[in-house]
Amino acid sequence: MNFFSEKIIDWYLINKRDLPWRKTKDAYLIWLSEIILQQTRVDQGMDYYLNFVNEFPSVKHLAKAKNEKVMKLWQGLGYYSRARNLHTTAQLISEKYNGKFPSDYETILSLKGVGEYTAAAIASFAFDKPHAVVDGNVYRVLSRVFGIETPIDSTIGKKEFNILANKLINPKKPSTHNQAIMEFGAMQCKPANPDCLGCVLNTMCFAFSKKRITELPVKANKTKVRNRYFNYIVFNYRGKTIINKRITKDIWTNLYDFPLIETTTELSETEFLKSSEWKKYIGELDYTVKSVSTAFKHILSHQKIYARFWEISCKTPFNSLVSDTTISIKKNDITKFAVPRLIENYLKGWI
Ligand code: SF4
Q: 3-state class of 24 per DSSP?
């Protein structure tokens, strides 16, 4: 066994966190945990994992579920395409493979929502296949220990790290090796202020010996962030409101929010009420503005959303505003629908 693998496995066996998906070889449960944990911290994802397992103990249970139920259980986790892909893939496994999760890497990789990292994780954790996982933690550990300066978000960088990770994997213990390197990155070789003096790899670590920890790993492109300005219209007519099912290929597809008017800049209240978008939308409806919230700031990976909620009291029914994708509901019934976290935050002060 190579020195690197030996050291991180020894470290892992002493320091690993006790996590439920590490105690199983069931590929369905491992897949579920991996999809939940993409872009999500372990402490945040834990309850979601337990709720999903409880509600859908097997891939067939998940396949049979209504999409609305899956989305509701996912509410608050973000990156909702993960939930949609999870459901679609469960249906495919249920029908095409009779509920048995495929075990070879290429077939796992062909599943919707499964990338190279997730395929390697499932193939190694569930089936002990020697495919190295390369996630953000692994990039950090390898770039620091081996002094690799190739950007991790470049095609050439991804290839280089992938080759190295596969060279280092212990073919006799691929599952433990992969778990170990990821845990090592998450707990020991942290992004900021890692405890290098107490680290089992410090004698072989390039970044430690050259004092270059803060410079590694290297990223070529900083993500561009776009500002968006949302004006949510929260109607009230005799205890009823309107909600909107998001069907376009924007963020939050298939979730519910309120009717939305998006503007290119933040408008004052007067500017908004005079805008052609508002006038066109509200038409002849008789209303008063009950209140306007301050902007709720909501940060996504590529977008910063500033959302204000306009509470509008209607003097006459709002039937003219109800369409194929908007529905009229009793205000408190909104809790039955899957909504984005931004709406959930607003509702905290409302219900
Ligand atoms: S010595 Fe520091 S930088 Fe190097 S692997 Fe250990 S924790 Fe990471």
A: coil
